[in-house]
Amino acid sequence: MQDTSQKLVKKKRSKKKLVLISIPVLVGVLAGLWYGGLGLMNSRSFQFFCPLVQRVNTDQKVVALTFDDGPAPGTTEKLLQTLAEARVKATFFLIGDQIEKYPALAHMIVAAGHEVGNHSYSHQRMIFKPYSFYQDEIERTDRLIRQAGYQGDIYFRPPFGKKLVGLPQYLCEHQRKTIMWDVEPDSESDVAASTEKLADYTISHAQPGSIVILHTMYESRATSLDAVGSIIKGLQARGYSFKTMAELLAYQHA
Ligand SMILES: [Zn+2]
How many Å lie between the centroid of ligand 1 and the Cα of residue 123? Predict the structure, then answer.
């Protein structure tokens, strides 16, 4: 009898131990999954299914300027003027909803010979949504880009750079390239506060094959818009030339 009750006590203790050990392990695993998921969702260099482009692998001094969001009145015309004066072609990742509001601006971008990419219809975080949501957001925007007269390949850039499973799955099934970036000057508040700092940061961080992202479409980002001319001059002085995304991708080493 005594033996059995001792065994029972031992068994209970070991069960308790197991529970005590399991809780931190479980918490650790859940935390790992959560942070791992966040990392994947925000990663600029990895996604499930198809590869994405963060920078083009080349030793040639070529870079792409990419402008996200918009088109928006006021800022788009100024940006187009700066690019025209510098004779530089860039890539605009436009929002479908904004193209619908300002079709003439989208036409101006296309007519000036710039490349147009798809940046979704409503600029929401494209995670934890049904497959049909991704399809609708992308295909609606594709139609609007075509209506603006653009005929080239349409690459995709996820709003806020976020993607997890459903979005990459859609993009991969439809052989769509996902374009990220490796130089992001105006997302650092200290740098974004001054035109000079924005230009210096971009010029010192750009490498052969770099993809620069700028948010010049907002009135609140006047420093970004003002920095474009200096960024172009500074990089040209270092021997760089500017390519659209499609042109830059042609430099990719195997
Ligand atoms: Zn955006």
Answer: 6
User: Distance, CA 217 to ligand 1 centroid (Å)?
Assistant: 10
- One DSSP character per residue, 148-208 reads TT--S---B--GGG---SHHHHHHHHTTPPEE--SB-GGGSHHHHT-HHHHHHHHHHH--T
Q: List CB-based neighbours of ion ligand 1 within 5 Å.
A: 68-69, 159
Q: Which residues of the chain have a pLDDT value below 70? A: 1-40, 46, 48-49, 254
Residue 55's Cβ-side half-sphere holds a number of Cα atoms within 13 Å equal to 17
Per-residue confidence (pLDDT) for residue 50, from 0 to 100: 78
Instruction: Give me ligand 1 centre to Cα 196, in Å.
Output: 23
What dotted CATH number matches 52-249?
3.20.20.370
How many angstroms does the Cα of residue 50 sit away from the middle of ligand 1? 21
pLDDT tens-digit profile of 225-246? Answer: 999 999 999 999 999 999 999 9
Q: What is the pLDDT of residues 153-164, one digit of tens each?
A: 999 999 998 888
Please tell me the distance between residue 76's alpha carbon and the centre of ligand 1 in angstroms: 15
Distance 94 CA to ligand 1 centre (A): 8
Ranges of each domain in the chain: 52-249
pTM, 2 dp: 0.84
